[in-house]
Amino acid sequence: MTSDDEFEALIASRLESNPTQRFFLATDNAQSQSWLLARHGAAVCVWQQIEPEGEAEGKATAERTQSHAHRHTPMAHAVIDLWLLSMCASVHGSNGSSYSAFAQHMRGEKPAFRY
What we know:
With 115 residues, this protein is mainly alpha-helical. It has one domain. It contains four helices and two strands. It has a two-stranded parallel ribbon with strand order 1-2. α1 packs parallel to α2 and α3 packs across α4. The chain is globular and about 30 Å long.
């Protein structure tokens, strides 16, 4: 698993050499999303901000339900994130993640790791 600190270091390093670069963040974790948005502001974009559990009716929330017990957002959110991620210039995903590998596959690339 790739940690938030590792993603943050990658973003900081890329911004140091290219301050205008932008990053699309595909995550179902409200805490990770909030932290990276706070650290890098407009350099990080998301499809939809994940609201803390119970705060926003009809929006992506950190609430876990029976239909997606191990996810923090609805499956539709994951599919949209996956499609948008696959449209990015490159994919830097979690090590061993089939989600990241599938985004690379959708781009016509061979995943950088085996899962």
